Amino acid sequence: MSTAAIHADTHHDHHEHKESFISKYVFSMDHKMISKQFLITGIVMGMVGLIMSLIFRLQLAWPDEQFGFLETLLGKWAVDGKLDPNFYMGLVTIHGTIMVFYVLTAGLSGTFSNLLIPLQLGARDMASPFMNMLSYWFFFLSSVTLLSSVFVETGPASGGWTVYPPLSALEKAMPGSGLGMTLWLAAIALFIVSSLLAGINYISTVLNMRTKGMSMNRMPLTIWAFFFTAILGLLSFPVLLGAAIFLIFDRSFGTSFYLSDIYLEGVGALENIGGSPVLYQHLFWFLGHPEVYIILMPALGITSEVISTNARKPIFGYTAMVISLMGISFLSFIVWGHHMFITGMNPFLGSVFMILTLIIAVPSAVKAFNYLTTLWKGNLRFNPAMLFSIGLVSFFISGGLTGIYLGNAALDIQLHDSYFVVAHFHLVMGSAAIFGMFAGIYHWYPKMFGRMMNKTLGYFHFWITFITAYLVFFPMHFMGLAGVPRRYYQFTLVEDFNVWMDVNKLITVAAIVGGGAQLLFLYNFFYNIFKGKKAKQNPWQSNTLEWSTPVERIHGNWPGEIPTVYRGPYEYSRPDREEDFFPQYEPDESAPEVLHTKETKSAPDTKKVEEVEEGSVFFAAIKRVFGLS
Amino acid sequence: MVKSKKIKDPSYPVAPAKLNLWLFMLASSMLFAATVSAFVVHRPDAESRQAWTAFDLPIFFLYSTIIVIASSVTAYYAYKMAKNDELAHNKNLLLGTTILGIGFCISQFLGWQQMVRLDLTFVNARPEDISASYVWVITMLHFLHILGGIILLIATWVQSIRLNVHKKNMGLMTLTHTYWHFVGVLWIFLYLFFYFAQ
Ligand code: HEM
Ligand SMILES: [Cu+2]
Hints:
Distance between the termini of chain B: 51 Å
Helix content of chain B: over 70%
Bound molecules: protoporphyrin IX containing FE, copper (II) ion
Oligomer: heterodimer
Number of helices of chain B: 5
Mean pLDDT of chain A: 90
CATH topology of chain B: Four Helix Bundle (Hemerythrin (Met), subunit A)
Shape of chain A: globular
Order of helices and strands of chain A: HHHHHHHHHHHHHHHHHH
CATH superfamily of the largest domain in chain A: Cytochrome c oxidase-like, subunit I domain
Strand content of chain A: under 5%
CATH class of the largest domain in chain A: Mainly Alpha
Number of domains of chain B: 1
Strand content of chain B: under 5%
CATH superfamily of chain B: Cytochrome c oxidase, subunit III, four-helix bundle
CATH topology of the largest domain in chain A: Cytochrome C Oxidase, Chain A
Number of strands of chain A: 0
Mean pLDDT of chain B: 90
């Protein structure tokens, strides 16, 4: 291979050839390897979370049935094949925790920020490869700790993924609040350390290590999304740490930050007095709301990139997309109260949170419309990545619309803690972000492993997952409207909810089929790492820098000099070009003096030019704020 | 990260470690913002103020404040000396700063002892004493940051003894200097906050 030859030539002074198995695959400091470690750990955690959801869905659909295999699998948690109510709560809690933090925060950001920030910006690695490695290993430890909590005698944490005190603070409140809860808190503390280490690295690399010509307004939207995501994490995870620290002290040291006047099993009051459980909710949701955007924004960024590439069109409204991300990021810090409308908050404060929440609909709608207008009259290439991206747009819209209902304080008093909420967040955050993640995997698989995934399997994977996701989550809206509450173990115990049993069965069957479709994905993913068709260097004819690196994925990313960037990332189908794409790293022969001078392109469309002008002033201002030029 | 000697990569606008440190300080400011806000949210409004123990901070916390200001001054001069290549002064000032840092820790310990003597323990029997628990949590979190600073100071001091801190090698010195000012300012903020918020 010629690239290998160059590589050997220019890198003869470093130690790559001496790398041992441990330093290459285990304690790797190469961002591409760390990205794969995050991805594979995320996939494993995702499978665990999925299997948990299938187990508790079985319980909801056939509460009186005895499933022998459950007893084999779970032992005393499913005596006679009937799931134990406490373990049901534990499964729901760990399912939520795994999906939110482990799959869609670490698995998604960890994979794609690590892979793409250096590759798309033209850096040899992250700002601190060592911190990057630590970040993965803290995440790994955290995953092991969380999973181990499933095996303790009193069961895992069971108070819901939000672990509200006093339920979570008092060992006697429920079995899961014993050792299981302690392990949950330890796992989350490790997780926070991991995500802070990672976030610092992402931000620092984006601000500081872009290659020549890669001004901020030429960054791909993926990078913008990862950048804002990392900022959200950096500002909000420390607050969760604060909440967790107070909770740990209440649990293990006997303080009363969150506890007051509690009667347990008719005995009381406990010694703890003076605390405020609502304080916990404030602290938790100050993280919790930004967290849902930490989950969603990377998926939105990936979608922008995939849709633009496969529609062979410039993304519609690049600047508007960036400003929307910025607007969403900013607003996400001042809307946490919409999770607390029923905590007895001052109705005036409730209205403030309500208005702020509804304002988020504006940047969200801008993004949705920009996706649709990018697709409009494009030369669409329906490969699996593209389908999953379009799927994301669908979920983002159908799930986002119900957010407008829930953001309304008057309606939320009825809908709070019902299946309507479960439907809403599974569509807008769960399914949308998972689809973004799949889109990313199908799109960048060639970059990660140098091979291609099977397209046909990808199509089956997409269609089955897409249809079953709607079948699972859409009916839940109606259950919620009728008042069916979430986190209930058995609906047949409440006479009125018996009418929903058919729907519950439909949902569970759909969930099992959808879960089965993931086996197609697993096969496609793992088999093709070894046996897949060899990838070309730029299989999707994309513009961004990562496709200028050799297929072999070398240390330091580029064998020679880091390429220079000459233009924005989305110049597809330019009328003056023969090819329908124009990579960022290819100099333009017809206009030799483009770098660092204002581009004076021929302007077919005056409105477009205005937008560009506006954008550059805006970015100049940001650059000044960051002290960068 | 591996770079070959032949290829010259562009240098970065800011030293990566320095930027990382600033981001870390931002994150840790958020931790204190959260805990301090919890204190403010928890504090009852004026009518029911008797449900909240207001107490004077231990006098040792004031001493800590003075010590931390002094140590910031010595840290600043240590930095300046290193910049001027006055290595001996730099070494001594670093040692001085470290000793002041340890003095700060001792003063904090004495302050905590004083709180215990006033029956303002971390775990308290009366609901209104929850204010003391906050002071404990927040001062202890700050203490952890100070420990980190002292480790940095000692590391820099060792480097200075080995003549590795000078005009052309300011990396570690800059980090230590910045971080030490950060924990100092943080303490002054916390002290003033508790002083006026009680
Ligand atoms: C495999 C497909 C999935 C199915 C069938 C499923 C099903 C469910 C159901 C039925 C509940 C409510 C249980 C109850 O309230 O008793 C639930 C809770 C939850 N799920 Fe999923 N889910 C799936 C995937 C996901 C994904 C991708 C996410 C990522 C955001 C997610 C996050 C959550 C969260 C945060 C909760 C709330 C846990 C709690 O109440 O504390 N789920 N899931
Ligand atoms: Cu929210």
